[in-house]
């Protein structure tokens, strides 16, 4: 198979208005903690994300950082505690846009293709309902044609073969494609993918990623792609946003973020991600930022997050400012931005040369 | 007094001095409550061993009253004055003498104690001229009230005056009766016979153990295991399962009570307002065939309902020997005469309206429902009439009968304390009520001026005047037999189960002037005093 | 899933027994009259309290009724009460549990508290008391009373299941596609509950039959219908136990037991499907495998075992 | 790599006996594990990785049975033994002192109603009865400290610990009796990359310290490439390729290995379009006569359908593919 | 702890509901103690009640639906003084005395049989679940399935027929031998209690243990296949240790809550057994009260049973919290 380079990202985020935008959204959950008292989990804090037509934004971060919550806020599954969601620039909160109309524009794809399809319904029913609900098909004929068309668009060919299958008769990748087809059935402009491939078998993940890329390229969908796996984000997306403990700490064009991370957490994430190329690049092992990974400490408790920059307890460069307040946004010419005091205080050089991270494995004599 | 080791009574080696008996109704546990003024239904048994009435009724001889605590009694003043002469030398079990003051106390208590659930006698005045005379004055002739005195036990004033009769459970009864309580446990009451009882020490019973039995089955098993000498249960197929197992010692007797049970027809309701319907149903009912289905030992009733063995000459000669029999041709003839016609599915119809019939019986009884089922079957086969048999719980039978919420019911008929009372309860219009309103005792809603007139006249006749009694009784009997507000089917009985392994001297229905029931007041005492140990 | 359940032998036998019971219940009088030749109430004056034989397959009771005919007729009394009470209980359970789990919020809290109160109350004692008040009630009433005390367990279970189904991705996904609430309940959630509901229904039915028999035995049953319960009660009150007339009280009890076992069988089948770990089939195969191996080794001697291990 | 052999697996086959027929989840598996070595096992879901792990430790549950093969264990002192032939009682003495296991889901592996410390002390005291309660607790404290958990968390119940802590304490638990071999079945799949890194770094450090060998199972080949000394690739219950990490990454021989490697987009290297492996794995209950990968293989040809290709040494690694069969005319085309 | 506070709140609410229900039920149900009394009177004397008697009985019992609120308040006041009123069928015996007389028997019978059945069922179930598919399992599972399906009272009847009437091994009913002096200091009395209780107890245990056995077996089978049990095996722990500390202990949890949940049902089942064996306990008392429309007694017995169930649930909750640390944090 020829190694065709992936086309470079087109346009920039500023040139056109975003389709869907979260402006300064926060989400706090009331929970009961161990003592039986009420506590507030600050799952997302003052986050902003903009999705553009024909572009894919990746949201990465470790477990519990609030990625799913952001996706669910965007999907109007949760109402944000603060901030607002704008669809085509129009705020959608209370009465702005009816739920039904909103779902027509924005669709969420779940992580688990096994769970997000009703095991008792055939593909035909699942997709047909989605079509009918939004008036895209009425008669049996129309529904049938619509479903076949959808299946074709997600590369389930020949479509007739899949019409009457139950979910358990499909492989994971096929199921996830049915899920995507269902989302497409309402003819949305935005797809929100919450780790859409993490439950899939390694060998078929790329299939789904390639399908999403195709939808972006051919249908101009705006996409949010949530993942743990930075490598896949790089493969698929145009832009990467990094989230830590409920806050967006860095973002920008993918290559910029990956090749020159501006936030220590992004560095940690990159260093932690397995990269066969790196470790096997013989002899290039040099000291990473987080050599003593064992002493990194636990991720923060979202119910009682650290003050200031939430990363400071784990950050090797932590300064007094970091403990006191959350840094302002620093913008870079190529569209990259970061919330980190290092840049505000002119200590960015500490991060500057991004050496290839240390290999996990010691080279044994 | 109880020994500390296992009880020794009834063991083969020693002499027998304890009579093992039960109360008449099944109870699994006793509650130590001998308050005679309480309306409780589950009081502790044994009352007749402690408390006694002034007179007793000789059931076996036309229910004639006889003196008991009263040596004698007499009517005067045209039935308006009743004088009791008390038996001298009677003492309470604590040694105090029994006097007319106790009688006065007992009779006055209901009127003087508000809220006491005891029916006052309803006299005008009561006088006790001396310690052994009680004179009671009535406003009207009160011959028929005499029987009431057989059920009124006399209580010692010197004890009860110190207690609240409404709330005291009287755990250690002091009475004139033949025994005292010597031990109590939830499953057994131990009594000791008094040595100084006025009726004498008896022929051998020294102790009595009253045992609890939860169901008749338990009692039967206990009798079969020789744990019981005496009980009162209706034992179906007793011959097969009991007496034939030891004919010499196992006895099962059914003593007549004077009355019967059979069919009550709701004469206030279609189609039973039609006498022909009632007669058709009656003539088609064959008690002879029913009895084997629940062979309790009871016999087929006299057509009047009065038991010939008890009432004898009070039954009209025409009926005296006439037991109820089925007569299908008569039944069919009556059916043809009826203004209601049977439709194809066996339901009475008139004017296009259908009148389906049910027969109700008490679910808890072991014999009636079976017989009722059998009757329904007979009517179906013989008349093509469809009657559905329904079993009504005991607690609801009375309200349903009383409100007239039935068509046909298996129920008691002539069961009063005297011939007059028996007829009065079920026939007099004073005891009935319009449909829907509760009737007191006349459930068939028989309402007939002639009947009322006869009953009223009979009430004021001196019982000693046999001819007058007969006059009214015969007329009333003819009315019921002809009009059939009810149809007697089966003789009512007191069931007596006795074993003569340990005790002999049991009377038998053929020659006795008392009924050996375990809870029959003075009759119980007479039975116990006459028992002789076999060892 | 439903297919899988129906393929299990124990489910098949269980359902077969149920079908038979229903059939007998519906055709009871006809079966009694035309196949047995005796209606339940018909009196055979020549055979009273007879043991099996002489034209009465299961003998007669002391009232001269054919026991087999009564057992067949009793099926109707028992099964109908069971059936009606089960329908009522199941409908109640579903009507309370499913919305409670699906709607959530205050409604749920109120309903849950209500259900829990019912669940904690000693139902049989209460049934007994209530039935005692309405003594002699027709069978429909008895069924109603039984149902009233039978639904809470099911409601609680259905609620928790609905709660979990409501939060499951497929329901959320369909909601996000814009599905209406009603259809979410009836087309997304309910189909997943059918297994539970049907198992619940069967269990409720047998529980109803049990309860009816129990009440009848205590003398509080329906009084106008023959049921297995009233048969046992009659036998008891007519001294069948004391007199050893086993043919009278054994058949109705066995019938109840067999129906009870049928539910157990069906439920086992369902359990094994929903929780495959409960199935012992695999273990049995493993045992057989080891036994066969051991036998093979013994037959071939120790040397063969060595090589056998390496083949394939 | 001159370390002596620790475990010799020879023709191991494991069957799942089901009423619908038996499925061979591990088929004719042979390899040698040296002391102190990390052997990675990779493959897609259902390829038999977990089955292999439980068979190696003789922990399989019905309906799994070891139907053929030997697992020869070479203790540091004493004669080699065939674990397959050992009785449960004999095995029990070896367990944890010589063979320890770390499983995927830490939440399920810790007894939810026992304190963390107690789950350490019971195994410590079972294998060293001389240890008293306090000393065992002390030792448990040392063990958890090794993986970065404060000993004062020992009285905690599992649900009171974070996912990462639970996973790390399982690793500490595995090392409690200083085993020769630790098998790990996807020990990091449930945690995120940062935690995964921490855990693996710890495993490597502890290995340095104690010198145990590791069999590490995961579906994440890119992780194994960084971690393992040698990697075995499994497909449909068979090892299709086994070799050093570097060889496998740079010169994968088996088309499946290649496909698997190309399923992981690179983090830094230039991007190109990747395609994964189309199709789905075969049904083990109904095995094909030939190569199980044939139907999905871009280079399949007639010879693939004939017989299951044996594992043979090609250059530095062993491959089971007809492309490397010297008798196969197609072979030269590639080699 | 908040968890406990909430549970306690729930129990108080339930107790209130039960007590109130208890108040309301008798007052709105048909049936009337006066009628019962009259019928019984007739039953006993063989004579119809006179019209005067009918009248007296009816006025004595009065109308139960008058001044409900006042009655309700009085009812609570009396309950607070443990005054359950006076029995109707045993007038004027206080209800507390009747309950006091019956309660020990039921506690004895239910207590011992429940514990026995539970222990037996749980132990056998644990053993069966530990090795599902074993010969023991294969034989026991279907047998107990059948036993579980047998109506308890019917089984009691059959047992009574077989063991008491046919074989004569056991007495046919009652709680003790009435011939023996009624005293706890008397060995013979205690022995007779054991002898009389043996058959009812056996049937109760026989019927009761199947349920525990099944739930335990099934939970055990599931638990045994949990990863932590596998890990316990991998740790080389002794088999009994794995069985008890890892598998059985965890599998036991549902059976413990089940026990409390079942108390109500167990009491219900006992009631029938008490009926069949005429065992002088609460069940028989309740039964008698029900047929006699003895409302005060019915209320008291029902209250006792409800409170017993509530207390059992409360205890089970606490024990559960002790045994399962996970519940302690639950919201
Ligand atoms: N419904 C909720 N109620 C209470 N807390 C919640 C809720 N949903 C999420 N949280 C908390 O909010 C935080 C962010 O959760 P979220 O699911 O958004 O993280 P995530 O980045 O998606 O994690 P993962 O990678 O594990 O999916 C977590 O600490 C989580 O416990
Ligand atoms: N209990 C069982 N009964 C029958 N077949 C089983 C059982 N457990 C596993 N299998 C089958 O054995 C094969 C191997 O399973 P195994 O769990 O070893 O795969 P795996 O490589 O660990 O997969 P994963 O990456 O999903 O953990 C699979 O095809 C599976 O279907
Ligand atoms: Mg998430
Ligand atoms: Mg696995």
From TrEMBL, chain A:
InterPro entries: AAA+_ATPase (IPR003593), ABC_transporter-like_ATP-bd (IPR003439), ABC_transporter-like_CS (IPR017871), Oligopep_ABC_C (IPR013563), P-loop_NTPase (IPR027417). PROSITE patterns: ABC_TRANSPORTER_1, ABC_TRANSPORTER_2. Residues 20-270 form the ABC transporter domain. GO terms for molecular function: ATP binding; ATP hydrolysis activity. Keywords: ATP-binding, Nucleotide-binding, Transport. Pfam families: ABC_tran (PF00005), oligo_HPY (PF08352). The keyword Aminoacyl-tRNA synthetase does not apply. One of its GO terms (biological process) is peptide transport. This is Dipeptide/oligopeptide/nickel ABC transporter ATP-binding protein. It comes from Mangrovactinospora gilvigrisea.
From TrEMBL, chain C:
Pfam families: BPD_transp_1. It is found in: Cell membrane. The chain crosses the membrane at residues 12-32, 79-98, 110-133, 139-158, 184-211, 246-270. It comes from the Bacteria. Its main location: membrane. The keyword Cell membrane applies. The keyword Membrane applies. InterPro entries: BP-dependent_transpt_permease (IPR050366), MetI-like (IPR000515), MetI-like_sf (IPR035906). One of its GO terms (molecular function) is dipeptide transmembrane transporter activity. Gene3D superfamilies: MetI-like. Keywords: Cell membrane, Membrane, Transmembrane, Transmembrane helix, Transport. GO terms for cellular component: plasma membrane. It is a multi-pass membrane protein. Residues 79-267 form the ABC transmembrane type-1 domain. Belongs to the binding-protein-dependent transport system permease family. PANTHER family: D,D-DIPEPTIDE TRANSPORT SYSTEM PERMEASE PROTEIN DDPC-RELATED, OLIGOPEPTIDE TRANSPORT SYSTEM PERMEASE PROTEIN APPC. This is ABC transporter permease. It comes from Mangrovactinospora gilvigrisea. The lineage of its organism: Bacteria, Bacillati, Actinomycetota, Actinomycetes, Kitasatosporales.
Automatic annotation (TrEMBL), chain D:
It comes from the Bacteria. Keywords: ATP-binding, Cell membrane, Membrane, Nucleotide-binding, Transport. Coiled coil: none annotated. Pfam families: ABC_tran, oligo_HPY. It is found in: Cell membrane. This is Dipeptide/oligopeptide/nickel ABC transporter ATP-binding protein. InterPro entries: AAA+_ATPase, ABC_Ni/Peptide_Import, ABC_transporter-like_ATP-bd, Oligopep_ABC_C, P-loop_NTPase. GO terms for cellular component: plasma membrane. Belongs to the ABC transporter superfamily. It comes from Mangrovactinospora gilvigrisea. One of its GO terms (biological process) is peptide transport. Its main location: membrane. NCBIfam families: oligo_HPY (TIGR01727). It is a peripheral membrane protein. The keyword Protein biosynthesis does not apply. Residues 7-261 form the ABC transporter domain. GO terms for molecular function: ATP binding; ATP hydrolysis activity.
TrEMBL record, chain E:
It is a multi-pass membrane protein. SUPFAM superfamilies: MetI-like. Residues 103-316 form the ABC transmembrane type-1 domain. It is found in: Cell membrane; Membrane. InterPro entries: MetI-like, MetI-like_sf. The keyword Transferase does not apply. Its main location: membrane. The chain crosses the membrane at residues 9-29, 102-127, 139-163, 187-213, 251-277, 297-323. GO terms for biological process: transmembrane transport. Pfam families: BPD_transp_1 (PF00528). One of its GO terms (cellular component) is plasma membrane. Keywords: Membrane, Transmembrane, Transmembrane helix, Transport. It comes from the Bacteria. Gene3D superfamilies: MetI-like. Belongs to the binding-protein-dependent transport system permease family. This is Peptide ABC transporter permease. It comes from Mangrovactinospora gilvigrisea.
